[in-house]
Amino acid sequence: MLIRAETLQAAITRMLEAAGTAPDPARIVAADLLEANLQGHDSHGVQLAPRYVLNALAGKLDPKANAQVVRRDGAVIVVDGGMGYGQVVGRQAMDLAIAAAKDSGVGLLALRNTHHLGRIGAYGDRAAQAGFLSIHFVNAVTGPAVVAPWRGSTSRFGTNPICIAVPATKPGGHPLLLDFATSAIAIGKVRVAHSAGKKVPENSLIDHTGKPTTDPASMYGAGPRGALLPFGMHKGSGLALVCEILGGALTGGGTNQPATPNDRGIVNGMLAIVVDPARFGDLDAFRAEAQAMIDHVKTSAPGGDEPVLVAGEPERLTKAARLRDGIPVPDATWDEILAAAAEAGITRGDLAAIAGV
Ligand code: NAD
């Protein structure tokens, strides 16, 4: 089913409001989920809305929480998200780090106890739009761990994303936005594949015995659970561990080790390093050099039918297509959205009418 972005966003906003979210945060969260869909990251789009609603109804997400500064030491800011919407408290916290970077050249944000932050690129983009570079290390404690370490067969990590954002280096240009999970694929992509009855790419999953599999049922089926693999063998595994240490231990939010409670919903911790490139000397020279390198990368002759792209470009291409054609929503996802909306008190018919389906 293809649903237009505006009507789908209106339906998700309405559903979040019904779960006790004020209009402004509901709009921010729904817009963030829709932006993920528009950019092609359906794992982080509206398919998450039912979990948000059910977590809010179960008291695992506080829809009214705002970011609270618990400690400030120069450019170091420690923020507790109070288990509020990551999309809300994460933006509030990032704005503090951006302000610190304006003042002192760097802002170091340790954000803990937020409900799901969504697409981490949204925070990199926020810094980039303000003219700053940023680096993000995130851990995710969402229940039992889902990613096995390199050479392991049982899970030890969350899907722990990393993002590095570089502001546009030419007028009218776009940020370089590198943003991915340290798992071979995002867990949400396994879920999307399971809902759509599709296989996942090779080298992404193992079954509960440690054997490679492409069947998403090994994570979402009725049988014993397998694990996601880290991307890039020992390299991704090492980065996943670093995300636990920086995003979970340094922030104070907790890592995926057994003493950390893992029944609190979807909990993210994020260390964000926001840097003012102007503090390094000649900003124009930096921009020109970075742009020259990006241009050089893109002149590499394609090894196949697909063009050479840089980080952030695939998402912009997908967004243009989805704004034109609508957002694909698998039937199983739509059914979960309708069911969660009904839990929050909106009939299936009313929600479908808002979504225009
Ligand atoms: P992915 O594997 O699709 O990789 C995306 C990154 O690779 C982007 O920077 C993209 O621009 C770049 N890219 C893709 N194709 C490219 C190409 N052909 N050439 C150059 N660059 C290319 O992403 P993912 O690992 O599936 O993650 C999806 C989203 O999930 C991310 O936004 C991530 O932040 C989010 N996530 C969030 C959490 C959380 O706990 N909040 C956990 C895991 C993932």
Word description of this protein:
There is one protein chain. The protein folds into 3 domains: 95 residues, Malate/L-lactate/L-sulpholactate dehydrogenase, four-helix barrel (Hypothetical Oxidoreductase Yiak, Chain: A, domain 1), CATH 1.10.1530.10; 171 residues, Ribosomal Protein S8, Chain: A, domain 1 (2-Layer Sandwich), CATH 3.30.1370.60; 33 residues, no CATH class. The protein contains 12 helices and 12 strands. The strands form 3 sheets. A 7-stranded mixed beta sheet has the order 2-3-4-11-5-6-7, sandwiched between helices. With 357 residues, it is of the alpha+beta class. The model has no long low-confidence stretch (mean pLDDT 96). The structure holds nicotinamide-adenine-dinucleotide. The site of nicotinamide-adenine-dinucleotide has 29 residues, from strand 5, strand 6, strand 7 and helix 10.
The poorly predicted ranges are none
CATH third-tier fold name of the largest domain? Ribosomal Protein S8, Chain: A, domain 1
Taking all Cα atoms into account, the compactness measure Rg is 20 Å
Distance between the termini: 9 Å
Question: DSSP strand (E) fraction?
Answer: 15-25%
Largest sheet: 7 strands, mixed
The strand count comes to 12
Return the average pLDDT rounded to an integer. 96
Label the overall shape. globular
Number of domains: 3
Q: Compounds present?
A: nicotinamide-adenine-dinucleotide
Q: Please report the number of helical segments.
A: 12
Percentage of residues assigned to helices: 40-55%
Looking at CATH, the homologous superfamily of the largest domain is Malate/L-lactate/L-sulpholactate dehydrogenase, NADPH binding domain
CATH class of the largest domain: Alpha Beta
Question: Would you tell me the structural class of the helices and strands?
Answer: alpha+beta
Strand order of the largest sheet: 2-3-4-11-5-6-7
